[in-house]
Amino acid sequence: MAMDLVRLYLTEKGQTTLPYQILTINQAASAVGDQRFHLIKGEEVLKDFTYLSTDLLHPSDNGHIRMGANLAVRLIEERKRSFGV
Predict the structure, then answer these.
(1) Whole-model pTM above 0.70?
(2) Which domain of life is it from (predicted)?
(3) What does the pLDDT look like over 26-43, one tens digit per residue?
């Protein structure tokens, strides 16, 4: 199955496309088998593009602050869920 996925998402030059990379990351996260491991996607940590710098790729200074606050909330939620609180 993995080879089929590789063929599906390879370009003519042999470079992987973004959907394949995302699929691979999700599969790797699922395969860890440790409930202490959590995949937190970037778009869950920074949902508002106005916190990006002028290149619309990297977070601005305020974006880093917002990401830290959002990540802290998410980690607290995951920890409570892990301990059944």
Answers:
(1) no
(2) Bacteria
(3) 777 778 777 777 778 888
